[in-house]
Amino acid sequence: MALSIIFLYSSTASACGWGDDAETLRLAFFRAEARGMAKFSPFYYSEHYFNQYEIHSTQDRWRNCREWQQKLGASVSLDHIYELQYKTDPEKFQLAYETRTLGTAFPQNSFIKSLLLAKNKPLLEYFAFAKEMEYYQNPQNSKWESWDDTGRRDNWEQNEPQSVSLVHIEKKLEQQKDHFLQQRYAFMLIRYGNWSNIIKLYDRYFANDGNCTVLQPWALLLRAYVTEDKAEQNYYLSRVFDLCDEKVIAVMQRFNHDEVERTLAFAKNDHEKAVILAIKAMRSPGPALQEIIRINDLSPGSNYVNMLLGREINKLENWIFTPEMMSAGPEAGSEYAWSQEYIKARTENLQKDMAYLRELKSYIKDISTKGSQDNDYLMSCLAHLCFMDDDLEGGYKYANAISNDAPASVRAQKAIELALVASKQRNLSDSIVKQQFYDAIQQLYVLAGQDESYGKSLYSLLKILSAEYNKAGDMATAGLLFLKAENFKYSTDGYGWGEDAESPDYEKIAYFDRLATLKDMDNVVKIVGAKNKSAFHKFICEGTTTDVNFYLDLKGAIALRQDNLQLAYDIFKKIPDRYYKKDYPYYAELDSDPFYPDVLYYAKTDAEKKADHDFSKAAFIKEILTLRKNNDPESYLKLGHAYYNLSYRGSHWLMVSYFQGNLYYDAVYGDMEKAKKTFSGGNYTELTQAKYWYNKAYKVAVNKEQKAMAALMLHVCERHTDFSPYYSWDGPRKLQADKWVRVFYKDFKNTKTFKKFSCPELEMYLQ
Q1: CB of 241 within 8 A of CB of 275?
Q2: pLDDT greater than 90 at residue 685
């Protein structure tokens, strides 16, 4: 009598328990970047410790290449230097160097040609030695001159590689008269040598270098690591943060936020103070406008201010939009979302958040008039804040003020803002409006293909457009947008993003299973089945499920829940049998006799089990329709069996609900318990129709076998919650006798039905 499965649902769940974390559910539409902000991306607002753990900026690498070009001459291509430095396997280079075939291994490469000149032999020897170190020391394919920040931050303390002789490096350093090579060999010793020599080497070769090569801040990071005074260490770290891009995560991991005020005393000018304060502000989870004002006063127009303004906007989105979407449904992100305490706190906090939003907006307006910041970026900030403040006119004005020369992310933000305004002001069914939505989505889609973190904005935009279509009564489009958004929910931290395969699993219909009416399903089928879809509809259908039969099957389930059997039959009849046998993911759960109660399946003989026929939903419903026209006890019994199997205890519960069970927690689409009680007049959860037909069968039965079966099944229906293997292991189940089990044992002991189905468990009810 065991249940076949508890539920069918490919949940987006974490390893331990249901649900997504706060960062996954957080909405973030704002993702504009001013020029030069890429280095800050790990510190954009996030519920995680870092927004991401990769440095997307390549500025340090190109800076290194430019230093090589400056050394060798303008005729050497930067692209050729980059190719050898960062794209060439060290083993390939080393092999060509040792066999003296560099010219043929890298033909037409101007960097190689220059290094092969006799006058540049010391440079070639150094570069070959660097590649050798790269080969032996960096298993993660990082470059020795810019090791991965994603590795252990004490990598520099490891023993030197066996292939590298520190004596050799020291000797080379002593021989060098060329400052360029001196610094590079010195950095090797700092990177791989004895930690006690770091300060001496740094002070001699880097501290007073007015050119500030790319190696200077990299060496300074190691100089900071061996500094004992925390405030002084903070200062060195802040200079590294300001002077290069690749080491910002390493800096943030070591920066001591409790020592900020003492650190400021080491700063030599206002800009250095601003950097120190900005690093602290990047870790602030609360309102930080006052810190931003202080930073901007010290360093007007800096990218530190731009980044922090964007971070504040993301905070406000999380505080304002995310709770609104979670409480409005269908997404349920918090188990407290409906408690009175939560609602009260949210109301109070919303007032504070809106007041803070207007304060932030006023400040950005003020600095935008002074011309010190990136104006396009500030316009995107203002446009978004206006939208959040329901100032659609202002949002439209500021969005249109963004120039066509703005960075791609700012242009995409412009498209998002105009789409958001249109979603509030215009007719959502208008084809021009849908094209506008599509254009905004596509710009984000392209950016997300280049940087997965933009998937968060894409997810958020699709979710809010879904909510707007929901408000407008277009559940079909709302649901497809909602399901499409799910494809971009996991946009960072290795999850990847993009459309899932066209698999017809429950996630692809869950939204409609919860919320759609029969009319809504007609619209879904119309959109999905259209041959000449608009670009907008094509996008939201791809990666969900484009097989109309899966949606038709859901429509049939909705009709069956409403006990509209004729409509259910008409729907299921349209779906070809080959679909169920080939493409329907849950067919195996239905391939049994629907007119044999699942609770009695244990008593079937092997021959009877083999005789079970292939199941057809249409044929099943047709048989029920025929049986309901009859007035005999056998028909009533078969109807009772059919409706028992359509309950959550039966074998064919899947025809009515995609979950098996009376109570469950749904972390994504909200609680369905109330809706389940309406399924087929309450039959799914309370077996009401099954009881009705079994009672009729008992009353009109013409023999004891019919009465015995009716009595047995009425007992099962009355005590349906007992018939489950899932009960507390703290003690035995408490089985309470009812009228029907007494009747079964008192009046029908001599029947074949009693002899076949009586068991010790039934007898326990009488003890």
Answers
A1: yes
A2: no
| Ramachandran category for residue 661: left, alpha or beta (phi over 0 → left; psi -120 to 50 → alpha) | left
Amino acid identity of 177? K
Q: Which residues contact 49 (CB under 8 A, 6 or more apart)?
A: none
Q: Please tell me the distance from the alpha carbon of residue 487 to that of residue 458, in angstroms, as a whole number.
A: 10
Q: Quick one: which of 649, 623, 520, 622 has its CA closest to 568?
A: 622
CB 427 within 8 A of CB 449: no
Average pLDDT over residues 211-224: 93
Checking if the pLDDT of 497 tops 80, the result is no
Q: Does pLDDT of 55 surpass 80?
A: no
pLDDT(206) > 50: yes
Q: Is the dihedral of CA 312, 315, 320, 325 positive or negative?
A: positive
Please report, in angstroms and rounded to a whole number, the separation of the first and last CA atoms in the chain. Answer: 21
Q: Can you give the pLDDT at residue 19?
A: 58
- Residue-averaged pLDDT of the chain: 85
Beta bridge partners of 143: 146
Angle CA 202–205–211, to nearest 5 = 110
In angstroms, rounded to a whole number, what is the distance separating the alpha carbons of residues 607 and 621?
26
Say yes or no to pLDDT of 603 above 90.
no
Residues 6+ apart with CB under 8 A from 213: 67, 183
DSSP string, 349-389: HHHHHHHHHHHHHHHHHHHHTTT-S-HHHHHHHHHHHHHHT
Q: How far apart are CA 335 and CA 332, in angstroms?
A: 8
Three-state secondary structure call for residue 151 = coil
Amino acid found at 430? D
Lookup: tokens for 511: 């939204």
State the greatest distance between any 2 C-alpha atoms of the chain, in Å, as a whole number: 114
The C-alpha atoms of residue 146 and residue 187 are separated, in whole angstroms, by: 11
Q: Which H or E run contains 160?
A: none
